[in-house]
Amino acid sequence: MAEGATTGTVELLERSAQLDALDDHLAAVGEQGRGRLVLVSGEAGIGKTALVRAFCAGGRPGRVLWGACDALLTPRPLGPFVDIADELGGELAAVVAEGGAPGALLAALTRSLRGRPPDVVVLEDLHWADEATLDVLRLMARRIESLPALVLATYRNDEIDPRHPLRIVLGELPSGAAARLALAPLSAQGVAELAGSVGVDPAELHRRTAGNPFYVTEVLAAADAEIPETVRDAVLARAARLDEQARTVLDAVAIAPLRAELWLLSALADGELDGLDGCLASGVLHAERDAVSFRHEIARVAVEEALAPHRRLALHRKALAALAAGARPDPARLAHHAEAADDAEAVQRYAPEAGERAATLGSHREAAAQFGRALRHGADLPSARRAELLERRSYECYLTHDIPGAIEARRRALDEHRAAGDIRRQGDAHRWLSRLIWFEGDNAAAEGEARRAVELLERLEPGRELAMAYSNMAQLRMLASDQPGASTWGERALELAERLDETEIVVHALNNVGAAEAEAGLAGGIARLERSLQLALEAGLEEHVARAYTNLGAGSVALRAYAIGDRHLEAGIAYCAEQDLTLWGAYMVGWRARSELDQGRWDAAAATASGVLAAPDMPAPTRITPLTVLGRLRARRGDPDAWGPLDEALELSRGIGEVQRIAPVAGARAEARWLAGESEAIAAETDAALALEQTHRWAGGELYVWRRRAGLVDAFDRDAVAEPFRLELDGDWAAAAERWTAMGCPYEAALALVHAEDDAAQRRGLAELQRLGAHPAARRIARALRERGLRDVSRGPRAATRENPAGLTARELEVVALVAEGLRNAEIAGRLFVSEKTVAHHVSAILRKLGVASRSQAGAEAARLGIVER
């Protein structure tokens, strides 16, 4: 007998364990007073909604607040929270109506919840979530314990590919922030029980449906004929049994994604709602307060697509008219129906408004999509208006790191300006293209676009566009580590921007000049950056705030000022998460990995770097730092495939051609060569970087040190090399080690000690390398000491027995933690940036060391030993 749970007259098969788990979570919230987030996932039709409804219908004392995401082509911002606000009213409704930031919305929701008995908050269908909703989810996960409720979030895991925004959010959730409840298909026994005495072959039914409960029930509902070849046939067969009045209502509901309010349904069905009872009785539709909807989106889509084109068009036109006349017109919803109704004029009326509202709420992907919708129906627009929409789309694409989309829209806008003979707008478009092409990794082309912008704009009366073009030149020079060039162009930008009272350009130029001066070690650089940040925050200039945090954070880490760098990185990452500035946030996360690596927090560095690299379509500048961290860390630990990340980093850095990208990659590759006993290759790895016109004093100093360790003696400018490296190059190993220790860099301190001529210092350095797990370096130094005649040199603990009772290596610890989360080998390979074959080897070793026979047993045993958390 299949395990089941009963709610009403519908039996929920093979879900007792999941219902028990939800009961346990709710009880824990009530007992501890701390909220919990449970992610309920599964393929379309697996029964996520049915499970949550069964749980919420269990007679529990707290309220159930239900919000769902839209199935619109471009969803309305904050859809589920709008639903919840409509029910709760009060402060939450006011914050939603005002377009409050995620933090304000979450605070209002927290104050609206009762606490005891705990409420249940359902966020349904997050695979359709808009960016603003995902921002609230990010923040909610970080603050879940302060929310007095059990939050159940459902999503289709078969509809979120690696590029899906929700996939990125789930990958960024803090460890332990959410419990995961993945629903499996019905077993063959469960399908047989559900089929009962219906005249179908249960085995064939299970084969054709793969145990998907929705598919099974829809096929069984149409079982008066042969089993349909597709679920679409099953849905339409079920709908065909309705009478004419009911089918009219069903068709009307089908063109309204998410739900159809009764007043809207009346308008769509010309007031004839007699057929609604038949739809509800058949189970095709279900009622929810003052609206009705399909039980599953698959069914709605099947019915809508089966409508005759003229019938579908007529219904969308009715929906458009009814919604436009409603008390609370929603531009996103109106734009959806306007496009489906092929009403270009209405699309132009509502899509740009929906785009502007989405941008204000931080839903930048939705904003870009709405501007794109307006452009698709904008053939008859005046050229100036079309150019304006293209520029708005380009900017929103840029904010969400869709750089190809941003470039395509900006180039189309440039064509419009050329046709109109507008030199000023042409110059500004070239300046924007310079910025966007830099993200593509083509620095030479970016410089060309920047100079073309200046050339065009200097023909005209000086204005804000010219000031920004000057500042853009300063930015490119700063990125190329050309401090004099950055200061020259930056001062020109500042002088003109201050004369024009253009605060945004002042902020931009201060950032460029400050970052260049800080990198060069000049006094005042950090102060300029902090002034840029302050002005940007005061003016609400989101992108410029992110730039300031980035240059303060990454720049300070590059200078080994970790306290300052970490503080600004954490603040910047949090800010970007709340403002949907994905690209900036990812770049800073990559530098957080670099900071963790430098400070000896290697496990954290590996996880952080892998998280950035797992995100899709990250541009070259964003990938280089985490690639270098991961390759360097693997080389230091002796893990497999150190050269994969380092080779990709080299290729990307060469494409950009900036010393700030090339030199750190060269340093990482020189270290990997030294650790592999290939010192003779270090010259070739470092020659090109040292030949560049400008060299960062920290990155350049590292290159000279690795060359010295390889036996190469170079002439160098002592003032152009950072102090710890200069001390080592001068032969003062002890002083270099002291400086590295004071700065919080244990690995560099250990390397300095092991190169000293004092045996005691070398032993201390060796012990530190062994403690860090730097096995290749430790083996190399221990071998050298023994060759010099020292007999009591410790070999250190074996990697297989460090820091855990099962003797797992550091990489095996990472793998078993992901196995315990239920990830497959391919998913683990993507997360850790290794091959699937390598993961398979690690999993085999883990099973052997833990003495278990399966992955599930490995997760349970690792949890029992305290190796992973459950």
Please give the domain count.
6
What would the principal axes of the Cα set say about the shape? globular
Number of helices in the DSSP assignment? 45
Q: CATH topology of the largest domain, what is it called?
A: Rossmann fold
CATH C-level category of the largest domain? Alpha Beta
The average pLDDT value, as a whole number, equals 86
Strand ordering within the main sheet: 4-5-6-3-7
Count of DSSP strands: 10
- Give me the Rg, rounded: 31 Å
Q: What summary fits the major beta sheet?
A: 5 strands, parallel
Amino-to-carboxy terminus distance: 30 Å
Describe the structure in your own words.
This protein is mainly α and 870 residues long. The protein has 6 domains: 4-184, P-loop containing nucleotide triphosphate hydrolases (Rossmann fold), CATH 3.40.50.300; 189-238, no CATH class; 253-346, no CATH class; 554-618, no CATH class; 630-798; 810-864, Winged helix-like DNA-binding domain superfamily/Winged helix DNA-binding domain (Arc Repressor Mutant, subunit A, Orthogonal Bundle). The strands form 3 sheets. The protein has a 5-stranded parallel beta sheet with strand order 4-5-6-3-7. A hairpin with a 2-residue loop joins β9 and β10. α27 (525-539) runs antiparallel to α28, α31 runs antiparallel to α32 and α43 (825-832) packs across α44. Residues 1-10 and 796-803 have low confidence and may be disordered.
